[in-house]
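Protocol step 4 of 5: obtain the predicted structure for the target chain.
Materials: sequence only (see below). No template structures provided, no constraints applied. The aim of this step is simply to have a reference model before the mutagenesis design in step 5. Sequence pasted as it appears in the construct record:
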Amino acid sequence: MSVRLRLTRIGGRKDPVWRVVVADQRSPRDGRVIETVGHYNAQTEPSTIVLDEERIRAWLAQGAQPTDTVRKLLKTQNISA
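Step 4 output (structure tokens):
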């Protein structure tokens, strides 16, 4: 089982808000998640990024792999991936 840190979409039509979640790689984008570890809203100025750094570091230590987009968010928040 490959665990990933990735985004899942919430919010309305033409108003996306994204949750940063830990999920099995095989589950669909908005499907079953293991844990929600933050959220991201690109519609605000500046973009709102809220991440639970402690839980993200714990998942990374256990071998979870972030997607490219989540890796960029982690980098902007100075969390090493």
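Step 4 remarks: Strands lie at 3-12, 15-24, 35-41, 48-51, 65-66. The chain has a mean pLDDT of 93.
Proceed to step 5.
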